[in-house]
Amino acid sequence: MHITKNLKYFFILPAALSIAAIAALGVWGLKPGIDLAGGSLLEVRYPAGRPPVEAVRERVDVLRLGEVRVQPTGESGFILRQRNLAEEERQMLLQPLRNLGEMEEVQFSSIGPSLGAELMRKAWIAITLVVVLIIAFIAFAFRHVSKPVASWKYGIVAILTLLHDILIPVGLFAFLGGTAGAEVDALFIVALLTILGISINDTIVVFDRIRENLRKNEEAHRREEFESVVGRSITQTVTRSINTSVTVIIVLLALYFLGPESTRNFALTLIVGMIAGTYSSIFLASPLLVVWERFSNRKK
Question: What kind of membrane protein is this, topologically (predicted)?
Answer without folding.
Answer: Multi-pass membrane protein
